[in-house]
Each structure stands twice: as structure tokens, then as C-alpha cells.
Amino acid sequence: MALPDAIDGEAMSAHGVAEAARPIRRRPLHDEVTERLRDMIVEGQLAPGTRVNEAALCGQLGVSRTPLREALKILAAEGLVDLLPRRGARVAGLSAAELGELFEVLSGLERTAAELAAARASEADLARLTALQARIEQHHAARNRHDYAHDNHALHEAIVALSGNAVLKEVHARLMTRVRRARYMALLSQERWDESVAEHAGILAALAARDARRAGELMHRHVARTGEVVRAALAG
Amino acid sequence: MALPDAIDGEAMSAHGVAEAARPIRRRPLHDEVTERLRDMIVEGQLAPGTRVNEAALCGQLGVSRTPLREALKILAAEGLVDLLPRRGARVAGLSAAELGELFEVLSGLERTAAELAAARASEADLARLTALQARIEQHHAARNRHDYAHDNHALHEAIVALSGNAVLKEVHARLMTRVRRARYMALLSQERWDESVAEHAGILAALAARDARRAGELMHRHVARTGEVVRAALAG
DNA sequence: ATTTTGAATTTTGCATGCAAAATTTTGTAT
DNA sequence: ATACAAAATTTTGCATGCAAAATTCAAAAT
Lengths: 236, 236
Fold this sequence. Notes:
Number of domains of chain A: 2
Largest interface: A-B, 38 and 39 residues
Oligomer: homodimer
Order of helices and strands of chain A: HHEHHEEHHHHHH
């Protein structure tokens, strides 16, 4: 097999001076590989169930087996890959049942996030959420599913971030990575879409009122319903 | 996560014939190393902040660097180790602040677990929980902190298991691993200890009544308070 | 005495080699 | 043909080698 030679990496820029100021440290290869592989799995480029051949992937990515194997261990820890001892790795499947479980946990996490955010977010934070929700409503009115999906995701992430709890944020992000593999999520019925936008409004109102319990409860129900819809779509 | 590991397990029996029937496959080394290292960290044998020297640990464990490095990647994904690029690994610290965050998340997860368990546990399951609680009360009456701690942990795990949600169980277990590093948990005041036992009774009653909301709420409060106590102990 | 510079040493990151296990292929007997 | 057995091939798991980066240590300069 061809030897992946030299580190190379950055293209030579002509800015002699700026060159010196640029960050010196390169990212470890195994990190890069992990990220790349994770993207390939989430994007569906590596389909669930695919057997991962180390040599083949090494060739494709231009790295040796060592960093690739390290990456596979990490992705296995994240639940994106199954490691079969002595018989290689396969891309983890994503059943409707597991998706349902993921959403059950996510609804619990986001409830907690909403409760904490209600207590901890600043007025400025809340104003930003409201602005985001306004944009979401515009996308909804314009039937722009793509931008809607983007900002919708951003709103949920923002609320999780406003919990001020890094562990919560981390766990949430990891589970979301697994969920995001079901590309069915965008396929909401018009009815459910309308409902969803209205639920957001209710959650924001509760946050604005600093009503932690209500915000949490509404968020919980909102995410649980989303999960129901997604699970049904995957099952059908 | 969940590395499906070898079947092995049984100790060698002296029965020559049975010998041949023994599972042939050894557990992967990197698995063994991961587990061993995780134990060392949780037990406190590797103190928080300790710099991990690969060569030294390799010598101690009697393995080469390859499986050790794979194990370190996994433990980093679990949050037990920090990987500093190009300057090695260190055992992750555990601040009072982070412990607080962990308990915030755990209280949310166990609330969800209690809610689901209230709906899904069989009567036999509930009977088993009640039996466990009876033993816990005996340990409490006998001022036997060691056995109390053990069965207390078992009760919480049992309720999480009764949620019937494998993802929840997995996430909970991982966070508990991080929390368990604070050995201060056993050091409850008598007052808090009494309280805690009473709270358990309340939770079980709610489960028996199939009152999901109440079970969840009581569990949430119970774990949150435990967290408060532990955090305070670590801070002080 | 303290800082600085630069070599010597250690340590990390990655590629590669090799044996054992698993898989595939080929050949043989029913 | 089908089923089975054995050899050939592939693939995995682990150890090791080597270059680059980081750290340590020592001598020189302020």
C-alpha cells in the first residue's frame, strides 16, 4: 500500500508575515480521522450495518491503521460503531426501537435544560431566543423546511447551552449525533409542523415568565412528540 | 459503548474433556486494559491530575503501547481522562462544580427512569424493589453504612433498569462512573441518611401506585439533594 | 542569582511487521 | 450437484521502529 507521506497539510500561502502568527500545532491525525468518520456515518455515506474494512478505509483516507483503529474505538464508545472482537467493526444500526429510546432520554435531558435555563438565562439570552423563534416562524410561514430545520435545531441547542451545564450539553450533543442519522426528521406533516412551532412559542413564554416547571414540562412533551413522529416515520 | 466482549469467563476446570469445549476466544487486550485503567481511576489509584506516562503504564500492565493508547482514547471519550495533544494524557480532575453538573443531569435521568418504571415495571419487579428497600432499611437501622451504600446503589440501578430503556441505562452508568470517583458519597450525616431512606420509601410508594409523575418528581428531588450534599462535602 | 540558549533526553504520533484468527477458496467424497 | 474438509488468503490484534515534538538539563550571559 502507498505510504501516506509527509504531513504537509497546509497549502503554502504567500503571506510571509502572517505565516509566523498562525497557530503552530497541527491536529492529531486520529482526531481528524474520528471526525471524518463520524461525519461519514451521520451523513449516511457509511450505511448502518456496513462492514468496515480497515485496510480499505485506510486507503481511502490515506492514513495507516493505527489512527484509524483509535478512531474506531472512540466511535464505538459513542455508539456509532459496533466492535466485533476479531472480526472487525460495523457501522451501528439504528432501529425504530432505539430511536424511541434516544428520544425518551433526550426529552428528559431537554426538560432539565429548560428548567435550568428558566432560572439561569439572562434577559439578553431570552431576547436572543425570541429573535430566533421569530425567524423560525418566518421560515414556517414561508414553508421553508430547510431553514426551519436549521434554526429549529439551533433553538434547541441554545436552550441546552443556557442550562449552563457543560455535562448536560455534552451528553445531549452525543445523543443528538446518534439521532441525526435518521434523516426522516425533516419529513414532518404540515399538521405536526404547525403544532411544533406553537409548542416552541409556549416554551419561550414559560422561559420568559421564569416558570421552570412549565418550561420543562412543555419541552418534555414537545421533544417526546417529535420522537413519536420520527419513530413512526422510521418504522413505516 | 458496550463492547461486546468475549464469552470466556469461566475459570479453568480440571476436567480434561470439558477443557476442549471451553470457549476459545480470549478477550481483546485493549478491552482488558480499558477496564483495568478505568478501575484504577475510579478507585482513586490513579489520582485526578496524574500525568499518564505511556511507557511506565505499559511496563506496569505488561502490554505494549498500542492497546494502551486505544484504551486511553476510550477513557477520554468517557470523560475520565484528558488528552493533551502531543503532551500526553492526564487523569481528569473532578471539581465540585463538575460534580454539581453531573448530579443535575443524573437527577433528570433518574426522574425519567422513575417515570418510565412506574409505567413499565411488573408487579414482580416492584416486589423485588420493595424487598431491596426493606434490606436498605435494615442496614440503616443497624447503622451499617457499607451495606447500605451497596444496596442503595443497587436500588437506583434497578429502577433505571426497569425503565426498559437501554440508552438511558447506558448514559446513566457512564455518568455514575464519573461520579463514583468522589468517595465522599458515603459520608452522609445521620440526618441526611434518615431523610434519604424516607425518600426512597416515598418513591417506591409512588411506583407501587403507578403514579409516574410523582415517582419522577420524588426521584428528581432525592437525587438533587444527594448531589447537593456530595458537592458540599467535596467543596468543604 | 536569574534568565536564556541550546543541546541531550524523553515522549508522543504514526507506520509497519508479524503471528493468530477468521474468511474464502479449492478440492474431494458422497 | 451438495456437503464437507483442507489449504490459501485475508484481516485482525498487538508489538515495534522511527521521526518530530516536547521536556529536561546544563552552560553561558545578563
